[in-house]
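Can't paste images in this forum, so I'm doing it all in text. The chain is below; anyone willing to post the predicted structure tokens underneath?
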Amino acid sequence: MINRFFLVSGLAVAGIGCGGKDTPPNPVAPTNLTINVIIATDNSGNVQFTATASNATSFDYDLGNGIFQNSVSGSLTYRYPTSGNYTVNVVAKGATGLTTSKSLAVSVVVVQSLVWSDEFDLPGAPNALKWSYDVGAGGWGNNELQYYTNRLDNAIVSNGTLKIIAKAESFSGSSYTSARLLSRNKFSFQYGKMEVYAKLPVGVGTWPAIWMLGDNFTTVGWPTCGEIDIMEHKGADLNRIHSSLHYLGRSGGNPVTATTLIQNATSAFHLYSCEWSPQAIKFFVDGNLYHTVANTSALPFNQPFFIILNQAMGGTFGGQIDPSFSTASFEIDYVRVYQ
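Text version of the structure:
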């Protein structure tokens, strides 16, 4: 399909930098800075910039949303992840260090489309093309008491939903079993909206979670990779939903966090969602916004992240487990990602 485009132009704002000790005689700043902008009309968010100027050697783009890019040729294509009115500033840089700049307004409409989902319609084991498992005990630093397995006993699709099932049973030295599913190396995404329609498990000591880690987890480790917790629930604190961000300096017990109280978290399905852009990360329950965190280029939330679904038992967040606990199911109807 051929998309139609329309043209936007800006007004010049002159700016001349100062030369240094080594500035050659008679330095010349770039002149005649012109910027052409083509905005795709398919609501994809794609914008094509073309900057030209006499005596320019490169162009710096401030795209108006916290993103900065350089182009030697002056040409740049960028896809805005969200709708908005953006003030774009382009700086033409000369060989002697002198500059000329121009600002212009760009209005972008973005309509998000479903790019990945699991509707959990096929009974049996979770789809191996979409999910793998973390297997082991201890919760990798959280002092959890379950052993994560890849058994159908702990993760199974039936009647149109995924059940992540925690059980009180002796298994490989642990007193409980459960499952932790992840999309690592199968699907990850950068920016967009993620929705999970789920019913939470019943029981003091249960700790269900919907969360994400940066793709560079295996190379830089946690918390440098960043962590986005879309939903966490403590069985001992019924109906209180937590959302958090973890990163270097705000990890462990010191995340950027907020909570909201809902009704019937363990007896009814609710929609847990996150909207993620270069400007902000927003958390919702049933469409109600309750937590917004500004995103910046200094944070690790500007790279692809993969999805994790799990139910832990006890640990640093889950706390003491009810001695009479036998089993509990974290039930998920669907996971959907839009961009």
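Residues 163 and 257 are 27 Å apart (CA to CA). The chain has a mean pLDDT of 93.
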